[in-house]
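Appendix B. Chain record.
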Amino acid sequence: MTAQPVSRIVTRPLAWVFVAIFGATVSFYLLLSVVPLYATAGGAGRIGAGMVTGALMFATVAAELATPRLVGRFGYRATFAGGLVLLGAPALALPAVANLPASANLAAILAVCVVRGLGFAIAVVVGSALAAALIPAERRGEGLGLYGVVVGVPAVVALPLGVWLVGRVGFTWVFVAGAVAALIGIAVVPGLPGREPEQERPLGILASFRNPALVRPSIVFAATTVAAGVVVTFLPLAVTQGNGSLAALALLAQAAAATLTRWWAGRYGDRRGPARLLVPGLLASALGMLALVLTGNPVAVLGGMVLFGAGFGVTQNATLALMYERVPASGYGAVSAQWNLAYDGGLGLGAAGFGVLAAGTGYPAAFAVTGIVMLLALIPALRDRVR
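Structure tokens predicted for this chain:
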């Protein structure tokens, strides 16, 4: 069968979804590693840095539970616009935090992160559900791969760029850029679909958590996102060679590998099925994390981040495609929320837990423990393949 051109997949409504989610993810990734650095510069320490990312992601998790209900009441356009405002506007308050007393500094940063987390949750759940609904079922893997490229390019560029820019222009301009990136996306929201026609009763989020066919891929994916939370928060702090340039390069390598393999996994999954990618993706991610034990070796750091990024990209696409494959269209909202809960909950748990662990053991031992714990997810991955 001759493959259809990409233009047959990307309709005009889907293109607007891509534009809107691109602005949201630029805002998110530009500040993801920068805000923990900002907190550390204010005297928060390792635990405080972990709390910052943890607050962002746990607020995201809480809002993701409510987003399908918000969409049902207000529709896609109004909900997405509200999410972009909550994600972008609070970043403008961060420069003023430096003028607060030390006792209030961390609390103010955490409050901003909570509000931004609410906005990010709305954006990613709405964006993913809309993409799944607008992509033809027979091309879903490749279409979700394209969606992964759209949300992955900001990770490739904005995540290391934010760390690099802080040393050149300072925190304030990076925060302003993060706010503008999210708020610009509001301009294309009118081009999004309003509501999906009511054809059957939507699958509830609690029902999706009671479905083992959805829970198993979620656990596998969460194992990799825990490690991703560790990487984006603590790699710039653990790798000190080159005044931050090595850390920025490693984050760039990880994000680039994840974006490319997420697209490749979509094409492979359409032809061979996404289920067989779970175990290889998980193993690659865990091995990449274990390589970070050698934090003083630039080759090990870069190689580990390429390997981790490749595995992370594969598990991103494979788990999401597999979960959409196992529900009718009425379940897309619940699947989007559950998958994003695994993503953002893992990021928050990884950042917060690793901060406490590293404070007692140091970075190399904490990276080793993280990689070993990730391998426990082989149990649901292998069980899913058998089922």
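Further analysis of this model is presented in Appendix C.
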